[in-house]
Specification:
Blueprint (H helix, E strand, L loop, with lengths): L1 H31 L2 H8 L3 H4 L6 H13 L7 H8 L3 H16 L1 H13 L4 H28 L8 H24 L10 H13 L2
Helix pairs in contact: 1-2, 1-4, 1-7, 4-8, 5-8, 6-9, 6-10, 8-9, 9-10
């Protein structure tokens, strides 16, 4: 029982470190968010923080993983079932992507990560794995199922996946840049839905 209690407490502390770090990284940038500041906001000693993470970079990479992860949280079987219906798969995938785009916490970190990508090799590798590879895998598998069910034209499913997600990523980047300059995004807030409609009409049988 004590082991379980200690483990639960450690997990809660680790989660709190990640939440606090996300806020501080977003507000202060990577350099400005020191380990001392993070520990202080969490309410623990700096030395205690090292029981959970080796250094600040490890914390940063763990936070980034959550931002980069695929927005699609369904299990493989659920993805396959939804993909067999065609357009509903694209609608659900895209709406989850849109929710991430307009989430304030995600938006601030996404902007910071775009800057840090050019300075951190490990972060670039993580981006390629967590965001690029996983999303392309989910999408290409879904498009392959649609092709098997004669819902869309036969083609290279991976290429179709690239085509689909590239526009989503560009819309997300555009919105992030506009909000950074405090510009209204009302004019492009429906671009996600329009992308689904346009793309589906282009590939359906």
């Amino acid at each position: 029982m004590p082991i379980t209690t200690t483990s639960t407490k450690n997990n809660k502390t680790k989660d709190k470190i990640l939440k606090v770090s996300t806020v501080l990284f977003s507000k202060l940038g990577y350099k400005g968010a020191s380990v001392r500041k993070i520990a202080s906001e969490v309410g623990i000693r700096e030395s205690a923080l090292y029981n959970h993470f080796e250094n600040k970079e490890e914390i940063f990479l763990e936070v980034a993983k959550g931002i980069f992860s695929s927005p699609f949280s369904l299990e493989h079987e659920e993805v396959a079932e939804l993909a067999a219906r065609g357009k509903p798969f694209l609608q659900k995938f895209t709406m989850q992507y849109k929710m991430l785009t307009f989430d304030k916490g995600n938006e601030d970190m996404f902007r910071l990560l775009m800057i840090e990508l050019f300075q951190n090799k490990e972060l670039r590798a993580q981006f390629m794995q967590e965001f690029h590879a996983k999303n392309i895998k989910v999408l290409s598998e879904a498009f392959f199922i649609m092709m098997q069910n004669s819902l869309i034209h036969s083609s290279d499913p991976m290429l179709v996946a690239y085509e689909y997600i590239s526009t989503l990523f560009y819309i997300r980047l555009q919105i992030t840049l506009m909000r950074f300059d405090s510009n209204s995004t009302d004019s492009i807030s429906t671009q996600f839905e329009k992308h689904v409609e346009f793309f589906w009409e282009s590939i359906k049988v």
